Amino acid sequence: MAPRQGPQAPLEFGGPLGAAALMLLLPATMFHLLLVVRSGPARLLGPPPYLPGLEVLWSPQALLLLLTWLGLQAALYLLPARKASRPWC
């Protein structure tokens, strides 16, 4: 006997394809905004006048913050999650 197929709920953000597009386009949009805002005329629709070097975009403090955040998330993941017990029940 085959499992019954019920009505499928609508997919948010366009399904897997929309989620993949968001993962690619959002960082690209933020990088474009960063470049445009730092330029002189700050034209949103025009291309940025130059691409900065890697030393401008690189920050050891940002890497340290990222690694600290990842470490915190790993520590929170490893914390034991237990059910609340009621001894009187």
**Number of continuous helical runs:** 3
Task: Report the β-strand fraction as a percent range.
Answer: under 5%
Unreliable spans are none
Order of helices and strands: HHH
Q: Could you describe the largest sheet, including whether it forms a barrel?
A: none
Q: Give the number of DSSP strands.
A: 0
Shape: flat
- Mean residue pLDDT: 81
Look at the helices and sheets and give the structural class: mainly alpha
Helix content: 40-55%
Rg (CA only): 23 Å
Distance between the termini: 42 Å
Family: Belongs to the ERG4/ERG24 family.
Subcellular location: Endoplasmic reticulum membrane; Microsome membrane
EC number: 1.3.1.70
Function: Catalyzes the reduction of the C14-unsaturated bond of lanosterol, as part of the metabolic pathway leading to cholesterol biosynthesis.
